[in-house]
Amino acid sequence: MKQNIYDLNLEELQEKIIEFGEKKYRAKQIFDAIFPCGINSIYDIKNIPQNLQIKLDEKFEFVAAKIVKTKVSAIDNSVKFALKLLDDSIIESVILYAKDRRTLCLSSQVGCALNCAFCETAKMGFKRNLSSGEILYQLVVANNYLKNFGEKITNIVFMGMGEALSNFDNFEKAFFAIHDQKIFGIGTRKITVSTAGVIPSIKKLIERKIPVDLAISLNAATDKIRDEIMPINKKYPISQLLEISKEYAKEGDRKVMFEYVMISGKNDGENDAKQLVKLLKNIPCKLNLIPLNDCTNALVCSSEAQIEPFTKIIYDAGIRVMVRRSGGKDIGGACGQLAGNLT
Ligand code: SAH
Questions:
Q1: Mutual orientation of helices 10-19 and 25-34 as an angle, nearest 10°?
Q2: Which atom of ligand 1 lies closest to the CA of 219?
Q3: Which of 15, 84, 137, 264 has the fewest CB atoms inside 10 Å of its own CB, making it the most exposed?
Q4: Residue whose CA is closest, atom 2 of ligand 1?
Q5: Nearest CA-CA partner of 131 in 94, 160, 172
Q6: What is the pLDDT of residue 317?
C-alpha cells in the first residue's frame, strides 16, 4: 500500500528523497506544492523531473481522502465535509464562519471510545486513530474549498470526531505542522484541543510545553452526574481534572476553557451553577455553555429559561462565561453531531 505523503514531516521526506538518490531540496519543492491546498497528482508538480515523479507516484498517495459529501448550512454557512479515507473509513470536519475567522473543526479518530451519553460520535464506537497526515489532510481539503472564495482556514479546533489526546503522538505531529510557518502557519493562540479529560496526556502537553489552547469538557459540577454522562470520569474525576487545569493555566500562562453541555434537568439547576462557581473560581478560565444539540438519546436541551439564570450565577461570580451557539445544526455539523452519517 502506498504511504500517505502528508504523514511525513519535511525531514522525513528529505530522507526518502535522498534514498531515491535525488537532491534533498526536492522535498521542499514537494512541500511547497502540496501545502496548504493539496494537489490531484504528483504530475501536477511541474518543477520535479519526470523520473522522480514516477518514483514518488509508486510510493506515495497524494490524495489522502475523497470528499463524499459537502453540506452547507442554510443558517450560518458552516460547511461539513464527509471524507472517505483510503481504508474507506468515513470522518467529518466542519468549517465554521465567525466575522473574519474561518475555523476548522477537525476529527482525530474514526469514531470515539469514550461513550459520552450526549454525543452521537459515541454511537459509532471506536474504529481507529487517524494518522497525523489524515488529520492534516482535513485542513488541506478545507483550504482547497475556501481558495475558491479567496479565503483560508485561520483557526483550528480539535473538537470533531474522537478524542485527540487519546491519539497523542499523531495529534502532536499534526499540531506542529499546523503551526509551522512553512506549512500552515497558524498561530498557537488559534489552535485549541478539546478533551474529555485524559489527564496523562494533559500532563504530557505541560511537560513538552506544547503551546496549544486547552478546552476541557466538564459538563457536570459533581462526580455523581459526570459519572453518569461521561464514563471517563470514573478514571479521571473532577478534582484531578481541576488540579491539572490549574497547572496548565499556570505553566502555559493561558486561560483554560471549560465546556459545559446544558442538559435539561440533568446539570442545569441553580445548585449546579453554584457548585460550578466553587469549582472554577480559583482557576484562570473561561466557561462555554453549550446548549445540547439534538442527539438520539433521551436527553433534552435546557430551555432559555434555564440557561439564562444559570449563566447569571456564573457571571455574577466573576467567571468569564459565554453561551456557545453551535454552527451547522441543520447539517448535522454541530458539537456532538458528527457521526459519519452520509444522508
Ligand atoms: N473528545 C473531545 C472533543 C469532542 S466534542 C471532548 O470530549 O472534548 C467537542 C465538544 O462538544 C465537547 O465539549 C462535548 O462535550 C460537546 N458535545 C458533545 N455532544 C454534544 C451535544 N449533543 N450537544 C452539545 N455539545 C456536545
A1: 130
A2: 15
A3: 15
A4: 195
A5: 172
A6: 98
Alpha carbon of 145 to ligand 1 centroid (Å)? 25
Q: From CA 108, how far away is CA 37, in angstroms rounded?
A: 19
| For ligand 1, mutation pick of 119, 192, 226, 341 (most atoms within 8 Å of CB) | 119
Q: Which of 247, 185, 188, 186 is nearest to 216 (CA)?
A: 247
Is any ligand 1 atom within 6 A of the Cβ of residue 219? yes
- CA 202 to ligand 1 center in whole angstroms: 17
Q: How far apart are CA 92 and CA 112, in angstroms?
A: 13
Q: Please tell me the residue having the least CA distance from ligand 1 atom 24.
A: 292
Examine residue 36 and say whether the peptide bond preceding it is cis (omega within 30 degrees of 0).
Answer: yes
Beta carbons of 328 and 292 less than 8 angstroms apart: no
Mean of the pLDDT values across residues 179-196?
A: 96
Q: Which positions are catalytic?
A: 92, 335
Among residues 152, 131, 27, the alpha carbon closest in space to that of 87 is found at 131
Angle subtended at Cα 147 by Cα 141 and Cα 152, rounded to the nearest 5 degrees: 75
Average pLDDT over the chain reads 96
State the Cα–Cα distance between residues 328 and 206, nearest whole angstrom: 33
Residue 296: its pLDDT value, please? 82
The dihedral over CA atoms of 305, 120, 202, 278, expressed in degrees to the nearest 10, equals 20
33 Cα to the center of ligand 1, angstroms: 35
- Which residue has the least CA distance to atom 25 on ligand 1? 335
φ, ψ (nearest 5 deg) of residue 174: -65, -40
Residues 6+ apart with CB under 8 A from 164: 108, 109, 158, 171, 193, 194, 195
- Non-local CB neighbours of 19 within 8 Å, separated by 6+ positions: none
Please report, in angstroms and rounded to a whole number, the separation of the first and last CA atoms in the chain. Answer: 30
Distance between Cα 253 and ligand 1 center (Å): 25
Q: Averaged over 33-47, what is the pLDDT?
A: 96
